[in-house]
Amino acid sequence: MDLLDRDGLTEREFLERYRAGDYERPSVAADMVIFTVTDEEADSYRKLAEKELRILLIRRGGHPYLGKWALPGGFVRPNETAEQAAARELREETGVDDVYLEQLYTFSDIGRDPRTWVMSCSYMALINSDKLELKAGDDAAEAAWFKLSYRLLRERKELAEDGYVKTLEYELKLSSEGEELKAVVARTMTAKSTSTGTDYAIVLNDGLAFDHAKIIACAIERLRGKVNYTDIALHLMPKLFTLTELQQVYEVISGKELLKAAFRRKVADLVAETDHYTENAGHRPSRLYRRNLED
Amino acid sequence: MDLLDRDGLTEREFLERYRAGDYERPSVAADMVIFTVTDEEADSYRKLAEKELRILLIRRGGHPYLGKWALPGGFVRPNETAEQAAARELREETGVDDVYLEQLYTFSDIGRDPRTWVMSCSYMALINSDKLELKAGDDAAEAAWFKLSYRLLRERKELAEDGYVKTLEYELKLSSEGEELKAVVARTMTAKSTSTGTDYAIVLNDGLAFDHAKIIACAIERLRGKVNYTDIALHLMPKLFTLTELQQVYEVISGKELLKAAFRRKVADLVAETDHYTENAGHRPSRLYRRNLED
DNA sequence: TAAATAGTGTCTGTGAGACAATATGAG
DNA sequence: CTCATATTGTCTCACAGACACTATTTA
Q: Which UniProt keywords apply (chains A, B) (predicted)?
């Protein structure tokens, strides 16, 4: 490359002389919503265990939001990508590695961190409860798995000239051994004849730090969307599982009951039979399946 | 909030004393893939015009990548969100405002900008060719609308122990009055029994700056995906349009031919009839529709 | 009248929803 | 034998793919 710029410099010369300007720069954090599924004890030994969707939160030990619960995360360092930073945090917090990791959205609202200018590049991770055992409670920071519930609370639609504004308010509840956090997140869709836009806002926030309620809402919606047309839910399953367990996971994610026959047809290509069966179930044993890695 | 931290400070005191640390911070750019659809002149006055999908590129006037073509974009400033920065750039480059704008992905590969540490928070914008007229050629920087073609070039699948690696190579071609840019982008999906990941890489790059070939690939894939289950394509249409024109836009985005009857059934709820018709078409006139803002 | 496109009708197969019927192990 | 779940069968309905047919304008 021998092109010369306005100052008569080659690219190499330009780069040698380049000094980062004095523009203010943001800090960029990688924050993660780490999902897992756990069993809730059943009433009777003959009944099946119910499944719960949980996410990992960490209690803040310093200002700001001292004592509130936050998503695990940390700043991206100069010689890593945001994804590597997320993977590093995941390893530090849970000890697990090599799991499903997907970038969600980059939040950059001004003032979202009261200290300084911080953007959050958010990720979603899915880990199965097998791996989970490794790290029950470990280091100094207080961490806990919160049971998650996310449901539509209110739906509003206002017609404007030239379009409408639709607002969906969702209630986010997180609970873990006595702790109960609650938030309401509003998703506003503005449709005009020319443009369309979606915007999240926190309507109510009790116990969560920063704008993390938004990030969690964003993660659940992504998860719910992808459950229906990918094999993403299989990342929440252990090596071997029954189809009923898989169905329970689909149900707890989407918040809907599914019909058994239709469900089995739908996931038929995503799983592969094994010759193993459940034992001592108090009823007919169930065939165990594993994730199908064919197509 | 009267909680005190380890140093006995309230949150207010903490924030008053807070000084941004000396950690190195990245610059964050908002880069945009601006799509539009234009008509290509037909051979005969009786034939319909074909549609072309185009994106806006800007020729770099300084190092690095002097003379190469880059996506419009710029650094996010301290008192704006990344989205506002994208909207601002869009306004500066095209003069249009109030269009469909969607965040795509944040790219943070190390070394993606040879000058310094720069992340790119990328956006996709859709504008219709009506608005386009406003700004044909305007300011100092050389800008041009490039016709876009993106097709699967090669597909490879390698079985590993415990999973497989699938690589899809796409050819990206951009052309505008003599200029012809070409790139090959590989999308690698790694599936193991535990994890799954997707990764983009630039295999070949002729004429595009930075990692912008990746960003463009990412945008096309998002657009192709969403065309099938949202009304996103309507943002590329003028106020009034025929169903055949809309079908052409669907076809040029997805790269597939569609059947007329099925297509009309599919978009029936997304559009609304008007009482206007095309004129002087050299054949039967066509009813004009507009975007339906009902549901 | 011919060319070219607009717009509609209908057959068929696929697949999801719904529900029913049968199977099996623990106790 | 009963409980509770596992697993399979099948009926119906909605809908997309495929193709054909009719309608309407301009030159």
A: Hydrolase
